Amino acid sequence: MLKNIFKISLRIFIKERFYSFINVLGLALGVASCLIIAQYTTNELTYDTHHPEVEQIYRVNQTNFWAPEGGVMGSTVLPLAEALKTEFPQIKATCRINTPYAKMISAGGSSETFLEENILGADSTFFDFFGFKLQEGNPKTALDEINTVVITSEMAQKYFGQESALGKTILYGDDKKTLEVTGVLAPNQQNAHFDFDFLISIYTNQDCKRFEWSWIWTQVVTYVKVEGDIQPIQTKLNEIADKYALSAFRRLGIEFDEFEKEKGELTFYLQPVTDIHLRSGSIDNRIGTDGNIVYIQIFGIVGFVILLLACINFINLSTARAGHRAKEIGLKKVLGSSKKQLVGQLLFESLLISIIATGVGLGLTELFKIGMLNFLGIEIESVFSVQTYSLIIILFPIIVGFIAGAYPALYLTQFKPVSVMKGQFTSGKGSARFRNGLVVFQFSIAICLMICTTIIYQQLNYFQNSNMGFTRDNMIVINEVDQLDEQTESFFNQVKQLSGVNDVIVSSVVPGFGNPEDLMFIKGNPDRKVSLGTIKVNESYIPGLGMELVAGRNFDKMQDETHNIVINEMTAESFGWTPEEAIGKSLVYYEPEFNVIGVVKNFHSLPLYYEIAPLALFDFKAPIFNASQNVLVSVNGTNTMNIIEDLEKTWNGITNTVPFNYNFLDQQLADVYKSEDQLSKLFVVFTSLAMIIAGIGLFGLSAFVATRRNKEMGIRKVLGASASQLVMMINTKFSTLILLSCLIAAPLAWWLMQQWLTNFIYHVDIEVYVMVMCITMVLIFTWLTAGYQSLKAALTNPVDVLKDE
Fold it and tell me: What is the mean pLDDT of residues 122-131?
């Protein structure tokens, strides 16, 4: 029985190869899209699930008192961990992770030095909390001692070659502190919300010992392991700051009550570690990059919808061609076949197509993964095991085959044999309406995706090209210039003399990437405190970056400016001054006083995710924290690579131990919006696939319509109809369906994008022309797809189609 069904199904597949090819191609693209998205979303959803006792691990978040708008942040203070262990017996362990920032590193005994950025410091309990595996070393003792470090296998290879790195030493930082390698990570670690190349013991960073008393130095991330219910802990966390922080604030001359009045109540919150990667929202992750659960949900829906579009193609073509199978079904019924047998036959035909499509789809999945890595920079990891793939190969054809084939099978087997054998069969208006509804649904989804993709690209373009209040073009960034020590000034002077260099700008932070913040108050009025961003700059910073002074003057190299500052308009407004009134005022930063000599027009010192905040620019010799020096070399834009070669020669002429590293400012700023860039690229890919699948279905349906109406068209042509009129006759129907799809898709896309854009403080407006452009493109696509088949039929010689009449 099954053998006979298989033979019949295979013969029909070969006989109807054009429509079989369309069905296989559409379903294969749907299967590939679904698998790609399933792997991507599964990979994202498995972050931090591999840690031991993961259900007991929480990150402690706290009130974000640095941001003017408040909120919650993932950064906390050093003494919090000990306070939590003291107050709550349910907390059985704590772990703190610190960010020491970039350091110069070399292997002990080697003169070759590298600037390493991916460095973390951690408590000795780190490996009790997180499931990072060591291939060398003991995780229980690896971080027990000061001046010890755990490195990745890649770093072990980089610094020590094929030799074992365990027990070897590296020279760390400006002072070339000797650190012993006490562990080497195994390769291919599982996903976590942070990663590192170097993991030092936390007190190797001397600042962690220095600020262990401080309840305002928020430079660590704190984790706890909790036994039992966390609710009793959460309700009492509000009391921690009142009990432990008062003395620390008084030490700084700050009244804690006044601080909370201005910044909001200092409290703490527990967040499950498995929620950090996708469910942190606006909570910052200082040690890694977070995803977004909303995007994962969107991609899951898109994957299902694309597969559904492919199934709709199958349903549409099967029901449209019902007339060609009607006599076969009617004859089989007359010969005794039951409805159950006929449904089984038709479902098996669908299953055969689905099996072939799944095989092709698995191959396309691997091709898509290579393409997405090479052309989009998005790596889709193979997170499925062999058993999972086996299950997919078995279940996918069954599920897809049933979804795609169930309706056509039930529809075709309802025909009455008597009517069919008399030639009185017609698919009916109801069937046509159903097919039209499916076409409208397909293109509604495709058009909605196209409009959304266009708006996402516009928002990304806005981020990457909007005016941030300073010049970003033709700026070469050289980081960590302070590594040159006493030769720094000599390097600056030599660079200024190079051909093509306009100016040399020095800053403690690269503009647009954030800055340290601290409290300052008006001299004589300590109650009036404002959290200010702090940046140390030279006299070229404001003019070199094209900023505008709205009052006062700039720093002057010929004067002592160590106790002078330039503030932005937002700072003046926060203190209740106009720009002109601010000039000559004094602000206190802990103990030193600083005189306001200028007010600069507001600019974005942070990425465009954030509002412009109060900011103060200090002279580089000012007595405040932050000794980092980054150089921005403004160039004329011609022969840039020659200028870079000259910069490298100048650098190497001063030092042969510190490597020369550079970036372009505009590229660095564009990289900030990597998640939006990836989102837009993924939407382009899946929108294109949705349009291709919808187009394949439209192509097959228009081919069938043209074939079914070929005699009518032949008669019309004999009676004088032109080819253009015949093409218009067929295409008008499809154009009407597409326009109806547009009426559904446009409002839906507008609403979805309006919701998405509210996540950004600065965003584009949705313009009507975007809708019109997308609708026009889809109409052109429809005419090209359906028009080919209708034109082919219109140009056919009437004799060829009417000779049988």
Answer: 95
Question: Within a 13 Å sphere around the CA of 294, how many CA atoms are in the beta-carbon half?
Answer: 10
Does the model's pTM come out above 0.90?
Answer: no
Using the structure block, give the residue that is written with the tokens 């109060």.
614
∠524-527-533 over CA atoms, to 5°? 95
- C-alpha closest to that of 150 among 79, 89, 202, 215: 202
**DSSP E strand stretches across 218-324:** 220-226, 268-272
From residue 754, alpha-carbon distances to 319, 676, 744, 760, 762 in Å are 38, 16, 16, 11, 13
DSSP 3-state of 449: helix
Put residue 514 in one of left, alpha, beta given phi > 0 → left and psi -120 to 50 → alpha.
left
Which residue type sits at 344?
G
Nearest-angstrom CA–CA distance, 477 and 506: 10
For residue 349, which amino acid is it?
E
Q: Where are the alpha helices (DSSP H) in 661-722?
A: 665-671, 674-708, 710-718
Angstrom distance (rounded) from CA 294 to CA 278: 8
CB 690 within 8 A of CB 309: yes
What angle do helix axes 322-334 and 339-376 make, rounded to 10 degrees? 150
CA distance 516 to 512: 13
Query: Which residue's structure tokens are 């097919």?
Result: 435
Total H helices, total E strands in the chain: 27, 24
Question: Is residue 276 within 8 Å of 223, Cβ to Cβ?
Answer: no
DSSP single-letter state for residue 191: P
Cα distances (Å, whole numbers) of residue 455 to 295, 372, 449, 463, 683: 15, 21, 10, 12, 11
Share of the chain above pLDDT 70, in %: 87
> Are the C-beta atoms of residues 60 and 88 closer than 8 Å to each other?
no
62 sits in which H/E element? strand 57-63
Contacts of 667 (CB under 8 A, 6+ apart): none
Give residue 131's pLDDT band: very low, low, confident or very high (50, 70, 90).
very high
Distance, CA of 620 to CA of 506 (rounded, Å): 8
Which of the two residues, 158 and 677, has the higher pLDDT score? 158
Q: Which of 17-31, 59-73, 372-386, 753-767 has the highest mean pLDDT?
A: 753-767
Longest distance between any two alpha carbons in the chain, whole Å? 107
**pLDDT, average across residues 700-714:** 71
- List the beta bridge partners of residue 263: none
Output Rg (C-alpha) for the chain, integer angstroms.
34
Q: Which of 392, 426, 316, 331 is nearest to 8 (CA)?
A: 331
**Beta-strand relationship, 593-600 and 564-568:** parallel
Please provide the DSSP assignment of 519-558 as one string.
EEEETTEEEEEEEEEEEEE-TTHHHHTT--EEEE----TT
**What is d(CA 702, CA 387) in angstroms, rounded to the nearest whole number?**
41
Residue type, 638: T
Q: What is the DSSP letter of 660?
A: P
Three-state secondary structure string covering 414-425: CCCHHHHHCCCC
Question: Which residues contact residue 109 at a Cβ distance below 8 angstroms, ignoring those fewer than 6 apart?
Answer: none
Which residue has better confidence, 534 or 390? 534
Q: Which pLDDT belongs to residue 353?
A: 82
Average of per-residue pLDDT values in the chain: 84
d(CA 260, CA 256): 6
**Cα 364 to Cα 357: distance, rounded to the nearest angstrom:** 10
| Coil vs helix vs strand at 101 | coil
Backbone angles phi, psi at 100, to 5 degrees: -75, -10
* Cβ-contact 523, 587 below 8 angstroms: yes
Of 38, 66, 26, 778, residue with least CA distance to 392? 38
Residue with tokens 């369906």: 737
Cα atoms in the Cβ-side hemisphere of radius 13 Å centred on 215: 27
- C-alpha–C-alpha distance, residues 738 and 779, integer Å: 7
Give per-residue pLDDT as tens, 366-403. 888 887 766 666 666 665 566 676 777 778 778 877 77
